[in-house]
Amino acid sequence: MREAPVLQIPKRDTVPSEGTSKTFLQSLGLSEEEIERIRSLLGREPTETEWGIFSVMWSEHCSYKNTKRLLAALPTSGKDVLQGPGENAGVVAVDEEWAVAFKVESHNHPSFVEPYQGAATGVGGILRDIFTMGARPIALLDSLHFGSTENDVHSIRSRRIAEGVVRAIADYGNCVGIPTVAGETHFDRSYSGNPLVNVMAVGVVKRKDVARAVASEPGRKVLYYGNPTGRDGVHGATMASETFEVEDEDKRINVQVGDPFMEKKILEATLELVQAGLLEAVQDMGAAGLTCSSCEMAGRGNTGIRIHLNRIPLRAEGLTPYEIMLSESQERMLAVVKEENWESARRILEKWDLEAVDIGETTGDGWMRVWGNEEPETEVAAIPVRCLTTEAPVYLPRRAGKKSGAEVRPQPALSSEEGNDISGHLLRFLASENVSSRRPIYRQYDTMVGTRTVWKTVGGDAAVLRLDGTEKGLAVTIDSNARFARHDPFRASEYAVIEAARNIAAVGARPLAVTNCLNYGDPGNPERFEEIAAGVEGLGYACARIGTPVTGGNVSLYNETAGAAILPTTVVGMIGIMDDYRRTTSPALSGDDLWLLGTHSPSLAGSEYEHWSRGETSAALPEIDYDFERSLHAFMVEAVSKNLLRSAHDISAGGIFVAAVEMVLKGKRGLVWEKVPEDDDFALVEYLLGEGGAAMLIATAAEKRGTVEALARRWNLLIERVASIEGDRLVFGKQISFSLENLAAAWEGDLEKRIFLLAGKEEAAS
Amino acid sequence: MTIEAGVIVFPGSNCDRDCVRALKGMEGYRVREIWHRETELGGLDLVVLPGGFSYGDYLRPGAIARFSPIVREVTRFAERGGYVLGICNGFQILLEAGLLPGALIRNAGLRFICEPVPLECTNTNTPFTKKVPRNLTLPIAHGQGRYFIDETGRSKLEAEGRIVLRYAGGTNPNGSTNRIAGIVNEKGNVLGMMPHPERACEILIGSSEDGRSFFESLLQAA
Domain B3-221: what homologous superfamily? Predict the structure, then answer.
């Protein structure tokens, strides 16, 4: 091994040729033990490039070193699973011919540093994970968590972040032409220094065309296409594995810039290449860029790889090998191609105005060898691939142990002011940041491009997309329940899975499989790690009980700023399948009768109402009855496929009241809810706004009464007719009666002003 | 009578497949995709410039696409009297190419809007609109769809009956001059519109089937 040249590490200390400087080593985010282990694995002092390669491959983002053992316990197999965790995305069969690829990824840290580019590149990254599986992306979803927009010291920053993130998701997804069909937006103070931007993408692929990122043969060419490589994003994966200090200005250089037009071109080109059978393996250069994509493809195939950096297209002059290997410049692809297929692949890329660049070859020796870009060409890295992949460290951090029982405090009483004006109180709640209509956000997303989205399901429980070449409908949703996690992360993860599954069932689909994003704090802190471990366990438990395997996901740790951690947030992306997309339902109220299906046992403890009115929550939610959940799914699949229902809606944040408001406003129909507890105001508010029940609202035409009741009995579900669909008001008992206009003004009026600082005015018709 | 339709595909077009699907679903249409590097429109009756972000909307929407060889061919095709339908980004390209007057600028609300909107068809005496209902609903999906034209241009369009679509129901979602959503050229064989008829050909998908009426009109005219 020759001596590596002295390299200039920008923004960091120059490394003296006689050894590696302490400052440089400290900048890598590796522990003392890891540094020593790397030295002993190689049996010598690594070069700067090698240090860089190790630092990103051994980061949490790439190695899952702190969570691998937890994740190993998740249920990942099932009869429909074609590809479980470990690839770019999970793949699940939907019939004999077709499959769905889907995954969620976080771009939390970049979105805090630069909201617009951080979120835009998050969308780009997850789309590439889908089309590298050979699947055409057909839908995007997002789970967004921001600091509160209420008056606190951080609210302006939180609003600015929210505005930038939403605009970026719109700009990027709309331009690439992938509809953003569903999502959730949640505000809580704990996110003010660590917003969460989790994006999920879903694609369709013929089972025979599923591509993989396994370079299993030596002697193949390594093909680079897409954007040239620049300095942007150097060390992004390591940044995602560190906590922020209060003023982390110098992280700014790490943020990548997205180009959706390039994304669209590499998307189309990749799908053409895959369908023509020209790629043996393909992976995008995402987190940890060229380093990660090359050694992961070689690692999965037990081969080696040789890369010549002087062939890499560069965006700027003077990039060092260290920077080229660690760059996270966006929209770049790496593939493995047989010599005889090179010319055909080159022609397809040329059609899309892309250059095919041969940057090296796969080898049989199991080593990753990198040759530098300076004259004369010298080897700047030589590492056994397994040291970077399978032999990366794995830890099981210390858990603090379960907190001694969730705190249960007496339920809050209404203040006299609230009690005197319950209607006004309800309207204010309706306009609050976590309850009000998300339309100002999703209206910016092209929800329809691709003409697969069943329009009435947009803004409902789950979005339904028709699957080309079949009559099937694919239901997709993304959910989390972080509010519950303050007291019980296990239960919160369970509820996230349950809510996702209810959303899938609400449109009449059968829950099929899950992807997830685990957004947590610093695993080195035993209390935080307790949350992580409990959250993963809750996820696995619920998925096993519901029967939805976990086919992949993403872990985002270190979501802390100045020692303050976010709410432990397990985000669940779920897909479901239905036989006929034309037979689906939505929350838009229609028909004659509204039924409560299941057991509604509302509690204000832990509810969004408690959070809103008291600024904190007092307890986690009750145990979940999985038998009920499975029966509910079966009932809904059958009822919807037999066209028994006019509308359906899951009861979640904000309880019966918010669910009913959403139904009447979407359906433009009134509702008279006869029986409500009216003995005292508290009982009334608890009935309307309490959460934690196991129930759903369904609407039917009068002639379906008997059939629906019989079906519910057959599935052992309680069913009660609770309201008549009539008139143009929402009425609860004798006390509460709103006009739809008043409800609409409260529900639809607020979010726009809250998060969009720069509001243009739509002009009135002239 | 069969209409031979071609849907131009630029790099960055993203409603091309939707247009093909919609036309395939119409009786009396045969449709093919035309790659932007092609230079022949042989035998076509209708050319569709689809929505999307041709060339990434770099510079401004349609500004680069207009220099594409196929757009020169589309211009000649229009001069010969062929039907040209520009939807959304396609409308933007038609303006940049000078086939239609005016400009499309950023929405007055500054943000992208995607939703079905009420429209009014204000001239059913064009080949594209003979069968279009007076009141209809079509989806819009654009960030730069605010149609702008000066007063002289506007009165000329008005006088010649070339404003065929207006936002209706008291709305003007993007702040367009006189609520203009779609216009035709002087001969009436080139239509540019911001709403997406191809998204409204199946009731479940686009919230209405009013989009079909544009294609049915052409079939009658042809």
Answer: Class I glutamine amidotransferase (GATase) domain (3.40.50.880)
